[in-house]
Amino acid sequence: MSTEEKSAAPRSLAEALRARDDVSLAALLRSRPDLITPVPTDLTQLATRAGTRASVVRALERLDRFALQTAEALAVAPDPASYGELRALMGGDEEDPVVSAALPRAAALLREQALVWGADDRLRLVRTARELLAPSPQHPSPTGLGPTVREATAGMSPGRIQEILAAVGLSSTHDSVSAVSALGDLFADRRRMAALLSGLPEESRQVLDRLVWGPPYGQVTHDPAAHLRALLDRGLLLPTAPGTVVLPREVALHLRAGRAHRLPEPVPPPVEAAATHRPQMVDATAAGQALAALGVVDELLKEWDEGGPAVLRAGGLSVRDLKRTAVALDVPEPVAAFWVELAYGAGLIASDGEADERYAATPAYDEWRELPPAERWTHLAGAWLTATRTPGVVGGRDAKDRTLSALGPNLDRSAAPEVRHRVLALLAGLPEGASPVEESVLARLRWERPLRGPQREQRDMGPARDDDLRSRVARWTLSEAELLGVTGRGALAAPGRALIGAPEAPRPAARAEPEGPGDKLPVHHHTPPVAAPPASAERAAATATAARLLEPLFPEPLDHVLLQADLTAVAPGPLERGLADVLGVLADVESKGGATVYRFTPGSVRRALDAGRSAADLHAFLARHSRTPVPQPLTYLIDDVARRHGRLRVGAASAYVRCDDDATLDEILADKRAAGLGLRRLAPTVLAAQADPAALLEGLRALGFAPAAESAAGDVLIARADSHRTPPRTAPVPVPDGPPAPDDTLLTAAIRAVRAGDLASTTPRKPGPGDGGGGAGDGGEDGARGGELPRTGAAETLATMQAAVLTGEALWIGYVNAEGAASQRVIAPIRVEGGFVTAYDHTADEVRTYPLHRVTGVAELADDAG
């Protein structure tokens, strides 16, 4: 491209992209990764892809409110518009200094995203964005503006237009085009327009005031009142359909003092701090919540160790099973859904895949339990932060009006990870120890991502709604972060700050504020430093830092309990894992909190004996781990259950019962409640049963006996609580919100490929036979003759190649690969032999070999080719 061409104003988006440097192109591709999926062949294809509806809608949805307002103003501005016209539309006649200061950033962002192109005196919104944002009767503009005079009078009769000119004091014209132009000039002239409006009755002015901020459409009868007739006669209201009138855009802008928006929002709303706490108290509270979270997840997994609830046919938990889980965890059902989904997202539970499919712990659960507590927490918190599955929607309805169930399908919301990270980043921007006002967080998120679809409802007329997905996910994030221990008392704790990669907050020098929830802190205005989730390597480092910060906050696990005479044991804090495991089998948890209370019962003692413990083992265990003497009632309970345990033996016959005491077997046979077991005597000490061994064990226990299961060799079977595991399972993969952001390596390779492809498609070449005198440079804004491949015969192709080897000149060729894909390339031939040409390919920036029979044709480059 010549110097003159580079300095000229671009005539298309492709030319504007061609004038960008690699840093600017990288910024575009990083912000709109869908543009390189797959990598475009040249800049013309990149520009075409950047203007497609799906890509433009996606780009608009990711603009902040002020950048979107700027794009909306360009959509109602002349095409093209100057920067001065844009500034007048955004700041009004008085040119708001805050808006003027923020406008360069917004305009630069739109340019970077390839939504706007052109020099400052000829700014153009890409055509698709203009179609999406410009006013129309079907899709009103968020600006509240209507059509221009030219658009509104498109179907009006020439006589009627001349009548309007006469009514406003303009001279008649010979054609409608000049008449409409004169009327538009009048409405755009502030002085003449003020004089015209001053002659209207007050009722007419009130009608205009009702329409000025939108919607601009109104209804009139076939015989309008005098004050409406005055507006219609002067063209201040123009008919668009029978009984419908519209306020022309030029009139509305005059009444608005030139502003396109009623309330421009150049500055993001601040995140307000509701209260502040000492950072040490926040960290301690969060650590307590984190420890409780580990306990809840561990309790859930133990509850499902032997096989959890059945999997519904459509997938997920039934409502009844979710209620049972909530009761077992002693939490409300929505909270139970959160814990279940958290364990599932961390890969700790999954479906076992059996014919009678059930949920159970995975092998990863056993590995997770071996980790130190801080690392177990970071595993859970990291899975929560990146998961797209959103437990908050459980109980709602999907698109087919089916109930959304926990662990079921259709719970993925691709925006969830971004919202979670952004909410925590906003909390990280507050002074350390400060908790936010929830509504201020939601207002900030709405400013950052205001658009929910290509046609956004006008929201300047009333309070913002919070029923959109991002607001709901933000609310869930605040509550889930507190449950998980990422925050404490609503403020971001140090481990949570490290988890999102935020820098350590400076401690305030001023005195600590009161800690009451009603005490307000100063408003926080600056933008938080964290803007995007960290990459995988950074995330691993952040996780390690969070674990390091959390570890000293956890209390040291205890190696003892306090036994009491009422058959209970009190654990005054978290127990060592081995002690907790054994005690969880030997006793039932009666209450939880700062101290956990366990209760010993005949059933719990029998459970420990079934697990292979002897009475002597249990006595020694209690004596070793109790800071108080072992109460005599507990000793008697263990001895009594142990004395009866194992006297009856149950095996598979279908099942049998054997006992050295035949009187015990006589007692069983005489009991009418045992009739359902189908027992009969095989020998004085053996009974056979029709029931299976598991049912026989339960039946005899229901009769008050304490049987033990035995193996085929006659040994007592040890029943362990962690006997059921699923096959190895991977954690659910998050559903991405569009293509992933490209890394630097991919960006560099993609830009190089696009540049090379653009060189091949735009390099000028000498006209060949049948070319009609045109070269690739004659193709206008987008390059080489509409993308046609050069066509030459085999002999001419070979001769031109051989000549280029001798002269060292570059050639422009067309090439069709083995898959039939055609491309244009610029090559410098090095060697031609054996039906192949070896050449330096400027398109690929490397030496390649091409079969000559796949070269469609060849052309020499023009002498001025760059």
Describe the model.
The protein contains 34 helices and 26 strands. With 866 residues, it is α+β, with helices and mostly antiparallel strands. Helix 17 crosses helix 19, helix 18 packs across helix 19 and helix 21 crosses helix 26. The protein starts with a helix and ends in a 6-residue tail after the last strand.
Task: Explain briefly what this protein structure is.
Residues 504-543, 724-745, 757-790 are annotated as: Disordered. The protein is of the alpha+beta class and 866 residues long.
The fraction of residues assigned to DSSP E strands is 5-15%
- Overall radius of gyration: 38 Å
- Give helix % range: 40-55%
Largest sheet data: 5 strands, mixed
Number of strands: 26
Class from secondary-structure proportions:
alpha+beta
Silhouette: elongated
Low-confidence stretches: 1-6, 453-466, 507-531, 772-786
Distance between the termini: 6 Å
Number of helices: 34
Strand order of the largest sheet: 19-20-18-17-21
User: What is the typical, i.e. mean, pLDDT?
Assistant: 84
